[in-house]
Design brief:
alpha+beta, six-stranded antiparallel β-sheet, Yope Regulator, Chain: A, Transferase(Phosphotransferase), domain 1, Phosphorylase Kinase, domain 1, four-stranded antiparallel β-sheet, 3 domains, 417 residues
Length: 417
């Protein structure tokens, strides 16, 4: 291929033509491309560095990001193979983002915007953590920005699935393809045999948070702190110190712990997340993903055998839903067949004795449907109330923890030993 020949990234159903080169990393090159309608970015492995390891890294990155639907994690929209210099090398297509956190920091971020942006980064990294994926190469260059929505997106998951031995070998033997930028690496990433998990990402996030305010990456002691540039955000210094502790076990265990600290300080734009186990997607903690709420219970089928009306629900119900059913309040009942008389069985089967000679079975089934509908409403209210109580209890506990830490800190500064 001649130097002037335009790159064409061809997938099974589309073609993306090169517009310009926009980036180059240790083993990959990134181009701005178009399919004739939309601008994208294409990343491919440098043909000079294609190997079993780099292909594995690339495969891991595509596999995770292709399944992603989180707004703060990069999404792979297509992929294929490209022939460059006679070498077949993999590539993938992703949305195009015109700038990075690095460029944003170089133009300076107003202090009142820092935590707004940082919450996006937390969300993206946490979305990966909830699926047991550690990024392990977080740095401002890997955080992309959509200026039109001010949304930050975490990218470059190429080493996220590597084992510790693979990572160390990579750093030790290939200076031109080392583990990201050691400036943002946790101490355990620099030594053989150390466990590297989500807490390495938390260390990097602490460095980035401090840098977003001070334009300095903490190194050792005596580094510029947030209080030095903004007293309004001085409370973040203790959080940064906690996040960048040299010992992983002394850092916050999860990003949710960091979020809790920010939320109780009044940062309303910080949202807690959790993994929906049924759909394996990340959702807001405030979003109820109880299947009995998201897909309400309904009557699926009816039958009659040996003096019993048999009702089949669309799904099994838990004890809490059953209690709500049997304790329906002010409501119109089918006389002699009140909710408390129904018997729940495994598999969403409900029965009630009903002599067909004396009871209108169809009418009873219709009443049962109304019982179910009312129970769905009551059950949702119960779950919402429990969730609000849990969040309030959590908030109080964190406030007490912060208050106790402030007392300890004040005491230690006042008493001269």
């Amino acid at each position: 291929m001649s130097p002037k020949e335009q790159l064409v990234f061809e997938t099974t159903f589309n073609q993306f033509k090169e517009l310009e080169k926009i980036g180059e990393g240790g083993a990959g090159l990134v181009y701005k491309v178009t399919d004739g309608n939309t601008i994208y970015a294409a990343k491919y492995l440098n043909p000079n560095k294609v190997s079993t390891k780099t292909r594995k890294r690339f495969y891991n990155e595509i596999t995770f990001c292709e399944k992603n639907i989180h707004q703060n994690v990069i999404t792979v929209v297509d992929h294929g193979l490209l022939i460059v210099k006679g070498v077949s090398t993999p590539f993938y297509i992703m949305p195009y983002y015109p700038t990075t956190l690095r460029k944003l920091m170089e133009s300076s971020i107003s202090y009142d915007k820092v935590l707004y942006y940082f919450s996006d980064i937390l969300n993206g990294v946490e979305a990966a953590h909830l699926k047991s994926i550690w990024h392990r190469d977080l740095k401002p260059e890997n955080i992309l920005i959509d200026p039109s929505t001010a949304t930050l997106v975490v990218s470059d998951f190429g080493i996220a699935h590597f084992t510790q031995e693979d990572l160390y070998t990579l750093v030790e033997t290939r200076a031109d393809d080392r583990l990201g930028n050691f400036q943002y690496s946790a101490p355990e990433q620099r030594a053989r045999g150390k466990e590297v998990d989500r807490r390495a990402d938390i260390f990097s996030l602490g460095l980035i948070l401090n840098e977003m305010f001070t334009h300095n990456v903490p190194q050792g002691t005596g580094y510029p702190k947030i209080v030095d540039v903004s007293s309004d955000y001085a409370y973040l210094d203790d959080l940064v110190d906690w996040m960048i502790h040299q010992l992983p076990e002394q850092r916050p265990g999860t990003i949710d712990v960091i979020k809790q600290q920010l939320i109780v300080r009044g940062n309303d734009f910080v949202s807690q997340q959790k993994l929906n186990r049924l759909k394996n997607t990340v959702v807001l903690t405030s979003v109820i993903d109880d299947p009995l709420v998201t897909d309400p219970v309904r009557l699926k089928d009816v039958d009659y055998q040996k003096g019993e009306l048999i009702l089949k629900l669309n799904r099994p119900v838990n004890d809490k839903w059953q209690r709500a059913f049997k304790n329906l309040g002010n409501y119109q009942y089918f006389e002699g067949c009140e909710p408390s008389q129904f018997i729940f069985h495994e598999g969403g089967i409900v029965t009630i004795p009903a002599n067909a000679l004396y009871i209108d079975l169809a009418k009873l089934a219709e009443f049962f449907k109304t019982y179910v509908e009312k129970t769905n409403i009551d059950y949702r209210e119960i779950i919402e109330k429990e969730q609000r109580q849990k969040e309030e209890e959590q908030r109080k506990a964190i406030l007490e923890q912060i208050h106790e830490e402030e007392i300890r800190k004040t005491l230690r500064t006042q008493v001269k030993l």
